[in-house]
Amino acid sequence: MKSWSGRRLGGLTPTQFIIVSYLVATAVSTVLLLLPLSLKPGVRLAPVDALFTAVSGISVTGLGVIGVADTFSVFGTFVLLGVMQFGGIGIMTLGTFLWLLLGRNITLSYRRLIMVDQNRYNLSGVVQLMRSILLLALSFEAAGTVVLGVYFRLAGYSDGWLQSFYYGLFHSVSAYTNAGFDLFGDSMLSFAEDYFVQSVTMVLLILGAIGFPVLLEVREYVRARKKGFRFSLYAKVTVTTFFLLVVAGAVGIWIVESDSAFAGMPWHQKLFFSLFNSVTTRSGGLATMDVNEFTGPTQMLMSILMFIGASPSSVGGGIRTTTFAVMILTLITFATGRSEVRVFRRSVGQEDVTKSFVVFTFAAMLVVTSVLLLDALEREHYALDKIIFEVCSAFGTSGLSTGITGDLSVAGKALLSVLMFIGRIGILSLLLMFRMKRRAEKYHFPREDLIIG
């Protein structure tokens, strides 16, 4: 491993190389967004705002300090579109596509990078995995572009077919990658009563946030349904947790806001507002109503959902759904006196349990520290509840906002940028970046029990 990393990556581990690659991509994206060609005539973009937008795009968060439609030219929006695609699908997927397009062989070192980037445990089939991920992503985005493009034109949301498909393409990629950027100027508030656009958007958001491994297993199930295909434990836990969180979030929002933000609304409007806001907290960032209209309990619930985030190996951030699921299962196991974490007639490995609590603990410490720092920087201007919401949105790469992001200080924007970047690469990748090669202990000290709790 040492000789491979030194020969191929200049001494960097695969995790370090991937993180450095994302940093380089962020720098390049910043420069591209600052080009006069990327801006509308007469518009000036501060370097710090260009950097924030690039980080938000690479991390597919969508937190904005500028209005996309008011700031960028058509060229600039396509640059941002490319940044979202890069951040959503991932550096290794696009890199593999370009490598194959050039007719180059995929080396062992490159396969190891793919394995790390996609949280795989072995090298077999990683190149085919990249092909499948890219094909699925482009297929979903293309379908979304066609459906939304045609609908925007027929519903009168645009002046011509070209503009309709332009809007459809941008919105489809933004929704599938869960980036949350928009060309409408008000996120999706204009579609608050358009259930068709909301439904298509929610489907794209879910497809992006559910995770590539789940989508690939579903595809294999459809192909081999008559051959006794069995879903993996990962797929079962991921899908179950994902949709339980969506349902729980929607029910919670409906109950809390029924006599507040939703007062006087018909049941179907309450349903779509509740469901859409629950889905978008997975990592979407698109909004059909102003977050400030919600009461404090709902904003706190949404903050928790954003902290949990999307599924592993998806376009989303947060601690991930499987981390949350394993933690809950472990707590239930402990409370019931069992010694083994079980679910779906399978046992969860102790290493996975440990990883879950490590990820949660580090993430909680990171978010709490960030809230304290941002509050110290901005307490004269913004209440603590708004700061908590923005921090959780950045870490979960959701992009929902109470509207304060654009007015934060340079230090405040820098802090959120770091959180967005960490949310995209993941807590484990961040920790593994500093991890030395695992060594077997040469000796052991006598064990002594501690008093816990």
Automatic annotation (TrEMBL):
Its main location: membrane. This is Ktr system potassium uptake protein D. The chain crosses the membrane at residues 17-39, 51-69, 75-102, 133-152, 195-216, 237-256, 315-336, 357-374, 414-434. Pfam families: TrkH (PF02386). One of its GO terms (biological process) is metal ion transport. One of its GO terms (cellular component) is plasma membrane. It is found in: Cell membrane. The keyword Transmembrane applies. InterPro entries: Cat_transpt (IPR003445). Keywords: Cell membrane, Ion transport, Membrane, Transmembrane, Transmembrane helix, Transport. It comes from the Bacteria. It is a multi-pass membrane protein. One of its GO terms (molecular function) is monoatomic cation transmembrane transporter activity. It comes from Paenibacillus flagellatus.
